[in-house]
Amino acid sequence: MTFRLDQLPKKRYVIPGNAACAGCGMMIGLKILGMALGDESVLVIPASCASVVQGLAPKTGLAFPILNVPFASSAAVATGIAEAYKALGVRGHVVVWAGDGGTADIGFATLSGAAERNSNVIYVMYDNEAYMNTGIQRSSSTPRSAWTTTTPSGKRERRKDVALLMAMHGVPYVATASIAYPHDFYRKLKRAAEVEGFRFIHLQTPCPPGWRFDPAKTVEVARLAVETGAWILWEYDKGVLKVNPPSDRFADKSKRRPLVEYVKLQGRFAHLSESDIKALEEEIEERWRLILALSSALNQR
Amino acid sequence: MTALLKTALTGNHAVAYAVKMAKPHVIAAYPITPQTTIVEKLAEFVERGELKARFINVESEYGAMSVVYGAAMAGARVFTATSSHGLLYMYEMTWWAALSRAPIVMAVATRTIGPIWNIHVEHNDILTLRDSGWLIAMAETAQEAFDLTIQAFKIAESAVLPVSVGIDGFVLSHSTEPVEVPPQEVVDSFLPPRRADVPLLLRPGEPITFGNLPSDNRIHARYKIEAVYRAQQEAKDVVVQADREYGKLTGRSYGGLVEWYRAEDAEDVVVCAGAWCSDAKRAVDALRSRDIPVGLLRLRFIRPFPTEEVKRLSQYRRAVVFDRDITPLGGVLGVELKAAVPDAEVVNIVAGIAGVDFDAEAFYRVISNAVEGRYRGVEFVV
Ligand SMILES: Cc1ncc(C[n+]2csc(CCOP(=O)(O)OP(=O)(O)O)c2C)c(N)n1
Ligand code: SF4
């Protein structure tokens, strides 16, 4: 699919003057969602930054139909809406827009349930890598070593790889994405929209206050995550797993930028020693090996 | 016109047949004794093509309530069922559903909450819904379980509130009784199609945000008062109206929110809810045959609370309230009645909890003691 961002629909689904922080990566993601699915979608949003940034009722800063729901329930609520639409003959996409906490932790049972039943839902996990709405507490998707308010000396455990877990559920479509690569995210949303059943997109969305960086640098931080190999863009489409550009280039470790370039921009990693960074690098390399092994094992139809 | 069917059904199957005739769009539930046979039967109806509903198997009761919530908010007619721990596991969603005015119908085959594990009847589970905004109905017989379930869809969709239908675990859920099933046409004429735009129209291309933060707490406060207090008050007329209309069509109506039994010339009135009301009525009959003037007030609905109706209790010498539930203050109904009718003399009997058998004879014995003035305040009968 080739297209130009400047030729995408101009209708604005994210209205200026909403309540998000300056430089919020999640809001960039929502803008792209609006361009890709706009009027075709109904959003289900659990407790998270995404429920707050809509602004204050009765007004709203997001021009989607939105049902805000309790923290753990979104995948199941989305199932219900999708099933109602099937029964009533309503066309459209039911999209969950949920944070990493709502997805990887408290909502994981409903998520796994919806995936197992192959509900007709597009689930976007926007990953700011912590519970931001309640003040930067660790989630199971927070990377190892990152500072959060509940891991004051850095998180000790590895991050839970939710996208891989969802692919292992055998759902028709799973992808990772980054707000620094809007074409890629847009294309993945469009592809997801063509497929029936449960679709999962794991979108990395840097968060300036939570990751402790200058709000002007959101896209730069996101891009560095990909260029250092810390965030891998891949796609699992009907049983085939591929690493997507530009990540495919970074399968070769020597092509990646040094991890320290990504880490040094963020206050949450300020306490890291050289050996901590090395350990993180090793963990990243391990993830690469797994993804590449899976992609070579799952590369034919 | 399909003929009226006289058959024998368990309470659970009576509910399942009623749900089938109400033609829901979406059903979701998670197994728990003694509810399970309701949804097993519904799954069978759906598989056999007798019911065109989406039957969703979920990973938990939390998922079940979330699925039917989503479907109800999208305009579908929905049903779920649960018991005991299942209901508690749904709890967060039950509040969200009620305050969203989601017209969900849920059967609760009432059961004890642990520990210790105990699958037998008690009313504590369904009564945890009492402050959430849900309507709470309690059936006395399998026939009423059927009728009440049909009425519940009408009430939920007219009052725009979720409705729970309590059927006593095992006592009703698994006992077989004769049940009259009306022709489908009668149910169809009683139950109009679900309006998809109530409480809101959730459709692609129709931007509307539900549930985000309010700009002013007064907006939220007003909205909550309307969702909880006013909606419950308005639901009273809806309940009475639905029961009356149902009675015209089927010949069976139950008195709306409450049923009075031999209370006209009574001195003391027994108050209870659920299946054991039948046993209590037998005991009242036996006492009456010995010229002891007792009557009975059956609460068909615990929410909306029949405040006006129970006020009549102050005309009697004493109200003997039976609770099949226990709280640190005594029984729930005892506490509520004392609050609603402060000038009535209320004796609160907590009995039959944890499924302990409490039959007509036990009622006879305890009511006899009560009318002789042997109890004060809360009395536990195990
Ligand atoms: C049952 C329940 N527990 C806790 C909360 C408090 N809470 C609201 S949002 C949130 C964190 C959300 O984190 P995440 O899903 O990662 O989204 P983010 O805020 O980072 O965008 C928490 C803990 C809640 N709303 N409900
Ligand atoms: S805390 Fe982070 S994710 Fe939340 S609104 Fe602010 S920038 Fe966005």
Automatic annotation (TrEMBL), chain A:
Keyword hit for Oxidoreductase: yes
Taxonomic superkingdom: Archaea
InterPro entries: PorB-like (IPR051479), THDP-binding (IPR029061), TPP_enzyme_TPP-bd (IPR011766)
Keyword Oxidoreductase: yes
EC primary class: oxidoreductase
Subunit field text: Heterodimer composed of an alpha and a beta subunit.
Name of the protein described by the UniProt record: 2-oxoacid oxidoreductase (ferredoxin)
Automatic annotation (TrEMBL), chain B:
EC category name: oxidoreductase
GO BP, one annotated term: response to oxidative stress
Coiled coil (residue ranges): none
Pfam family, one: PFOR_II
EC annotation from Swiss-Prot or TrEMBL: 1.2.7.11
Keyword Glycosyltransferase: no
SUPFAM superfamilies per the UniProt record, alphabetical: Thiamin diphosphate-binding fold (THDP-binding) (SSF52518), TK C-terminal domain-like (SSF52922)
GO terms for MF: 2-oxobutyrate synthase activity; pyruvate synthase activity
Domain of life the protein comes from: Archaea
Residue ranges constituting the Pyruvate flavodoxin/ferredoxin oxidoreductase pyrimidine binding domain according to the UniProt record: 18-232
Keyword match Ion transport: no
Signal peptide: none
InterPro entries per the UniProt record, alphabetical: PFOR_II, Pyruvate:ferred/Flavod_OxRd, Pyrv_Fd/Flavodoxin_OxRdtase_N, THDP-binding, Transketo_C/PFOR_II
Chemical reaction(s) catalysed: a 2-oxocarboxylate + 2 oxidized [2Fe-2S]-[ferredoxin] + CoA = an acyl-CoA + 2 reduced [2Fe-2S]-[ferredoxin] + CO2 + H(+)
UniProt keyword terms in alphabetical order: Oxidoreductase, Pyruvate
Domain Pyruvate:ferredoxin oxidoreductase core: start-end pairs: 266-361
Assembly information from the UniProt record: Heterotetramer of one alpha, one beta, one delta and one gamma chain. Heterodimer composed of an alpha and a beta subunit.
PANTHER family with a match to the protein in the record: PYRUVATE-FLAVODOXIN OXIDOREDUCTASE-RELATED (PTHR32154:SF0)
Protein name: 2-oxoacid oxidoreductase (ferredoxin)
The organism of origin for this protein: Pyrobaculum neutrophilum (strain DSM 2338 / JCM 9278 / NBRC 100436 / V24Sta) (Thermoproteus neutrophilus)
